[in-house]
Design brief:
Two copies of one chain form a homodimer.
Chain A: E1 3-7, H1 16-26, E2 31-35, H2 42-51, E3 54-60, H3 69-77, H4 80-83, E4 90-97, H5 114-117, H6 119-127, E5 131-132, E6 136-139, H7 146-161, H8 167-179, H9 185-211
Parallel strand pairs in A: 1-2, 1-3, 3-4, 4-5, 4-6
Helix pairs in contact in A: 1-7, 8-9
């Protein structure tokens, strides 16, 4: 799966979270890190979009909206005619928040949900007949512990490379990662065996259910 | 009530709906027509905002978001520190749509609602402790009949000048409008009398209810 990461951030070089994501993305084969820089070369931008299977829009919220470079890019690059070429591709968002997650609900400080705030991108996926992938939301990166960041790195890499979030897909991802390191081959072997065992158990349960 | 109309439209001079609204706004005392033009003079923009009781953000949707000049303006002008000066003011949106209204619901072409799409501005009002005024939504202006446009003109002028949409406030607006034209003085007189009669009936109903 080829993934294009369109990053909209006015001060990307000062952002510790974007530096973190960039480092994570370089470790993922077939992922292209693409920060938006004005003016846009429409031809080049469209070629990048056409080549991708999953298009990720990655940005912080400023006053509850993406930085202005993103709507500008959408208006210049993503014309209605061109959008027909994107049909069937996946659209996803990686969102970074300065506020805590619980602020985004009725009655709390912000008072609206993240689903509300991301609705323009859901609508974009709908009208372009793209598949909307539930977003990866990262709140208060600056306050994360080292362990939380390690976990985030893995979630981010999976978000860039996995076609879905099924249990089996994620297990296979771990097997692949471990197999890349010779010292972890034994763990990978055990994980692989357990997964096969699990698949066989699942099959038995299914057959039992079908019998009823 | 002083009203500031902040218009975000990249081709405002080519827009027949914005020309229509501009003509309507000039007839309203205490309404300031203010199209966004980059670069922004932050000091001047803030002075306009401080002087207003109702701040209207007026824009079309491009890919389900405001044109990029609006988030840019918000980020440059509307800092967190400055926002404290806007506390208690009203925030409203005038939205123009190329699509028909029924496209904005689950299962329809766009698949999300206008309330979803306007949620960034509701959140803005919430965190700045401003009063959110339900939006004026204008779908497919180009296809409107002459009668529909006349009705829209009145709704728009009321939206710019009335503090609320109570029946009595709107009635009084009509009386004021008619009184401006000598030939309509008799209608205004009748309307005024009916309104007083209505107020007295309301009082009687209230007293009757209190007796129970």
């Amino acid at each position: 799966m080829k993934t294009l990461i369109v990053v909209a951030h006015p001060k990307i070089d000062d952002s510790s979270s974007q530096a973190f994501f960039k480092a994570g993305a370089t470790l993922v084969e077939d992922a292209t890190w693409h920060p938006l820089v004005e003016p846009f070369d429409v031809r080049e931008e469209r070629a990048l979009l056409m080549a991708a299977d999953r298009i990720i829009l990655q940005f912080p919220l400023y006053w509850y909206q993406a930085p202005s470079s993103l709507p500008k890019w959408l208006n210049e690059v993503w014309s209605v005619d061109f959008a027909s070429h994107l049909k069937g591709k996946q659209l996803a968002v990686v969102l970074t928040l300065g506020r805590q997650l619980q602020d985004y609900q009725p009655g709390a400080a912000v008072g609206v949900t993240l689903s509300d705030l991301l609705s323009p991108y859901v609508a974009l996926a709908n009208t372009c007949e793209m598949t909307w992938v539930p977003p990866l939301v990262v709140a208060q990166f600056a306050r994360m512990t080292e362990a939380q960041r390690q976990s985030l790195l893995i979630r981010y890499q999976q978000f860039l490379s996995l076609p879905d979030t099924h249990f089996q897909t994620i297990s296979q991802w771990w097997v692949d990662q471990l197999n890349k390191r010779p010292e972890a081959a034994q763990i990978a072997q055990t994980l692989q065996e357990r997964q096969e065992h699990l698949a066989s158990l699942r099959q038995s349960v299914k057959e039992a259910q079908d019998d009823e």
